[in-house]
Amino acid sequence: MTASVETLSRHWIDGTWQEGPGAIPVVNPATGETIAEVPAGGASEIDTAVVAARHAFNRWAATPLADRVATVLAIREGIKARSAEIAASITAEMGSPTKFANSVQVGMPMATSKGVAGLAESFPWTEEIGNSLVVREPVGVVGAVTPWNYPLHQVVAKVAPALVAGCTIVLKPSEVAPLTASILAEITAEAGLPAGVFNVVHGTGPEAGEALAKHPLVDMVSFTGSVPAGRRVQEVAAGTVKRVALELGGKSANIVLDDADLTQAVKLGLGNCFINGGQTCTAWTRLLVPEALHDQVVEMAVEQSAKYTVGDPTDESTRIGPMSSDRQRERVEHYITQGVEEGAELAVGGPGRPDGLERGAYVRPTIFSGVRPDMTIAQEEIFGPVLSVMPYADEDEAVEIANATVYGLAGAVFAGSQERGLEVAKRMRTGQVDVNGGAFNPLAPFGGYKQSGTGRELGRYGLEEFLEVKSIQL
Fold first, then answer.
1. Whether the Cβ atoms of residue 256 and residue 289 lie closer than 8 Å to each other
2. Which domain of life is it from (predicted)?
3. With 90 as the cut, is the pLDDT of residue 354 above it?
4. Number of CB atoms found within 10 A of residue 390's CB
5. Termini Cα distance of the chain
6. 135-144, pLDDT tens digit by residue?
7. Catalytically annotated residue among 93, 175, 210, 247
8. Phi, psi of 299 (to 5 degrees)
């Protein structure tokens, strides 16, 4: 993909493209080449965008629900029409393999936007409780700060329900993968979204992100990213006591019970660990197995890992592309090295670049065996294709290990029966659990326990995040 600096290096504010000072390079992680630049926005650009969103709010909030829903569906159709372009942009800016970019990176935002639009009519916008009429109203101006790993889905998961709710939005996309946000801005205009309802300001987290979180005219901040950055957003936003929704990191456990189908558990488990190159907050990075089955499972996982070809993300056969940046590559390699130093056994992979890939942000997909719960690789989010296989003595210990991190975003259980799997899933302190490979549901609530965040996205619960509740006594 070729990207023009001239056509992509602008903010989208109040329905127009606006130039800005400074320049942040957008680097293709597969080649190390700069493919575009975006302006380095800060407090001034954020203020302009927030004021525009505030001015547009009353009109958009008063727009009939059916019209707001129709606009969200029109945006979805715009995404569909430009799906090939969007997928190519995501592949170029953060290295997601083209097959995954087309099916998931574009497919998920289409599913989530359709889902929230479909539930709007049956949603309880008003209800009677005794002599009170309870009314749900838009929270106001939303500041959305999104990450680089799913640069369209993470945006649409916030923007679609916010628009249905009647809110206006200022988006600060990740400076690592910001180009897709510009395409979305064009799509919203073509869908007829009024000026000021959706705005995009580029920049870094410390500059543009913090300015957005603390702005007094922003009523809510919806943030997806790392735990340290989420803490900072919460601190900055506290000055104006605004609502904050945080979707943060994870260290998800996949508990394989002694009566599970091991072939299914290992195949799906490895797939959900290596998904998007492991750059997924819900990735099942800890594979918990009975001690007696540990070596067998490791052997199966190593055999399965050979199918995960690493290489050029534009090649249809590639399953793992580069990490999103060289900085991310260095982070993943650091954790792999640390795992070796702390005594984990390398079953496959390890430090260093894959053979034949001397250029680009590539790492070797890695599987560690015999990992102890106290090891760094078992506790901290690596965000790369690194699996830790961890033995346990019995079911109680498996649950204890699964719950023994500061995170609680997702997880899985594989069992001989759905009933047994469900019982274990209920004991896991995490926001989502898949039993025996249960399919992703775009209408189910998504979010975490503990330091994985606050609030929920997707479906009815995601819509409720963008609403205030008023009681009127009659």
1. yes
2. Bacteria
3. yes
4. 25
5. 61
6. 999 999 999 9
7. 247
8. -60, -40
